Amino acid sequence: xxxxxxxxxxxxxxxxxxxxxxxxxxxxxxxxxxxxxxxxxxxxxxxxxxxxxxxxxxxxxxxxxxxxxxxxxxxxxxxxxxxxxxxxxxxxxxxxxxxxxxxxxxxxxxxxxxxxxxxxxxxxxxxxxxxxxxxxxxxxxxxxxxxxxxxxxxxxxxxxxxxxxxxxxxxxxxxxxxxxxxxxxxxxxxxxxxxxxxxxxxxxxxxxxxxxxxxxxxxxxxxxxxxxxxxxxxxxxxxxxxxxxxxxx
Length: 249
What we know:
The protein has helices at 86-89, 93-108, 118-133, 138-152, 196-207, 210-214, 218-236, and strands at residues 2-16, 20-27, 31-37, 55-63, 75-84, 173-175, 180-182.
């Protein structure tokens, strides 16, 4: 039996018994962790509100063994709020749906419990911070997060050079199966021809060029979101349930 501490973001919760919950978190040092929080559904619970989705918290766990993926789930015994991102996210439908899709994406890209994924963890923290601040449109923040999650997972799309032969851009065609834009010679069946503005927007979101992204027209944002969604679904092999509720610009 052992105690350990880690900071993490609450991805989702499940009811357990009459007053407990199973909390799924993405932590800095232990990757995705599922733990039991006892009594948090009682109205007098001292830290129930600190273990809601979007919360960034420092948590002490009590594990029954040295292995987090052992026979029993660890217990959340103490928690300290680091940043209550949910406070500004849940009050706005667009932010809430975008944030929910971000949490689901983070969980999908950390399939194995107990394995650290610091890049995905830091990416989620930055995405939630930006979303809560309200400085950019939620749809743009979500697409930027999805593109960077794909890049961290080894699936970075190309929006300039041909994804197959490396021919310098701009290239007209886009193929999710090929890995992004392709030239005429590498064009595959099913390729689409997006607008140059949509491709420029997606490149800006991937690299963090918010001046270009914020200036994009609504029609190009919608077009870009469709490309991101298709690319994400291809690599995850099944879609995100939460994406269907996201409010598009």
